[in-house]
Design brief:
heterodimer; A: about 110 residues; mainly beta; six-stranded mixed β-sheet; five-stranded antiparallel β-sheet; about 0% helix; globular; B: about 110 residues; four-stranded antiparallel β-sheet
Chain lengths: ~110, ~110
């Protein structure tokens, strides 16, 4: 089955710097890659997603890139702010009669003011 | 509009008790997902429904876990003979398209 690896597990950056989180997936048939932000004690929130027919997608300060050949995808946050501090999860979804979506283990991002 | 809701928000069960966790998805959402999230971990896939059809239940950890969505809207996750290792937050999510888009607040289950 699908396996999603996420790195780093913890990331600390200074306010205004960029943050990059990387994920790899194992099943080449995966075709949908969402990213979620989860604040302490809250529910995961979808922040951006990308499909396998697209190499890059941007939404204001966040962007995601996908390399299908290497089976890895990354989240980029620019001009980080303290409110960006949270746990971020990547996920990979396989559309075979359903959308079984497997999550990575998460990256705890700290943005220091 | 209303988002995904779950009840109860907190549940304490004695080992061996049966529990039922409810999920009310966003109205009209075809897809419904259940996930289990242990403390400090990522959500683990349990099962997926498309309308009333359970298309994937490969993540259910044992035959003590059972999920249903009989009318294609509200879903219930039932855990029989609860064990301490079942303690976790159970998240429900719904979507009108690919993947889980909107999560509920979760039910925190503690098995004593």
């Amino acid at each position: 089955g699908e396996n999603v690896e996420q790195h780093p597990s913890t990331l600390s950056v200074q306010e205004g710097d960029s943050a990059v989180i990387k994920c790899t997936y194992s099943d080449s048939a995966s075709n949908y890659f969402p990213w979620y932000k989860q604040e302490l004690g809250k529910r995961p929130q979808l922040i951006i997603d990308i499909r396998s027919n697209v190499g890059e997608k941007k939404d204001q300060r966040i962007a995601v890139t996908l390399n299908k050949t290497a089976k890895h995808f990354s989240l980029h946050i620019t001009e980080t702010q303290p409110e960006d501090s949270a746990v971020y999860f990547c996920a990979a979804s396989l559309n075979t009669g359903g959308f079984k979506t497997i999550f990575g283990a998460g990256t705890r991002l700290f943005v220091k003011a | 509009g209303a988002g995904v809701s779950q009840s109860p928000r907190y549940k304490v069960a004695k080992r061996g008790q049966d529990v039922a966790l409810r999920c009310d998805p966003i109205s009209g959402h075809v897809s419904l997902f259940w996930y289990q999230q242990a403390l400090g971990q990522g959500p683990e896939f349990l099962t997926y429904f498309q309308n009333e059809a359970q298309l994937d239940k490969s993540g259910l950890p044992s035959d003590r876990f059972f999920a249903e969505r009989p009318e294609g809207s509200v879903s219930t996750l039932k855990i029989q003979r609860t064990q301490q290792e079942d303690s976790a937050v159970y998240l429900c999510a719904s979507s009108s398209e690919a993947g889980p888009r909107f999560f509920g607040p979760g039910t925190r289950l503690t098995v004593l």
